[in-house]
Amino acid sequence: MKLPSGLDQLWQALAPFTDALDKAITLVFLRQLLDPEMPTLAGYDPRTRVAPKPPWALIVADGNRACWLEALVDRLNDLLGETLLTGGWESAPAGTVAQMVMAISKWKPAPHSGGGDVLGELLERVRPEKTARGAFYTPYHISFAMAKMVEPQPGESVCDPACGSGRMLLAALQACREAHNGGEPVLYGMDIDADAVRVSKLNLWLAGYGTAAIAHPDSALGKRIREAFAQDGKPSPAERTLTRAQRRVLAEVRAHGERTYNGRARKPIEALERAGLVDAEHGQHAGEGGELITVRPRLAA
């Protein structure tokens, strides 16, 4: 696998971690949010999304990088409304976080490769097994040309049933904004790839869209869009009564498509099962944490 300078060093630094891709997505997201050298998305500058915030150069230079990253991840996950960014930076081996940050700072995304979709470029470059299965993302200039031909209108629904990193949705958003003085369509996306769903949500947030309805069924298997989005993205009656711990688990499971927990999470998981929001498999025991529980989101029947 031939990777460009910076991205190659980043991937090498992440090799010991089981959540290497999650950490890579988080670092690229943070750099795009904080570094003015990174491109805009759908004509929107992500640097205006959150204030106040530390400049990326400070994180690169400061010896307390892990502390910065941990605090930013906590704050941004709250703003995102889901656990889409990965923590655990302060527990990483000494020097590893510095190596990661320095590496990602050297990466120069391909100009105009994705209209600012550097997260999508990351997925394409570091997951060759996905491209082998046909997971190719449409270049942004083609997506944008198609969107301008369709002429999406403010308030009009736009759905991509195989949204990947969200490029078609970003293009529709930009085309509508440019043609209608900032007006926006209502965006929906679906993809079988949980990593792509996560990246699509992050991209649209960086593009200033807010909370997009992006779901994780396989649209090719006939799942109806209304089912996948649980009443057009609005919380179901069962979700409105959840506790904070239950909402956190549900958000993690929906973001990743599948998560494994130890026995300490049994109570919120059982509550989500009773509410019909997740399916859980209770498996083998794992030391002090008790049994392992594999949890998947349940779509409406």
Task: Tell me about this structure.
This protein has 301 residues and is mostly helical. The protein has three domains: 123 residues, no CATH class; 95 residues, Vaccinia Virus protein VP39 (Rossmann fold, 3-Layer(aba) Sandwich), CATH 3.40.50; 59 residues, no CATH class. The chain contains 13 helices and six strands. The strands form two sheets. Strands 1-2-3 form a three-stranded parallel sheet, with helices on one face. A hairpin with a 5-residue loop joins strand 5 and strand 6. Helix 1 packs antiparallel against helix 5, helix 2 packs parallel to helix 10 and helix 12 packs across helix 13. The longest helix has 16 residues. The chain is globular, with a radius of gyration of 19 Å.
Mean pLDDT: 81
Quaternary organisation: single chain
Order of secondary-structure elements? HHHHHHHHEHEHEHHEHEE
Number of domains: 3
Spatial order of the strands forming the largest sheet: 1-2-3
How much β-strand is present in the residues? Answer: 5-15%
Structural class estimated from helices and strands: mainly alpha
Query: Which blocks of ≥5 consecutive residues have pLDDT under 50?
Result: none
Terminal residue distance: 42 Å
Residue share in helix: 40-55%
Overall geometric form:
globular
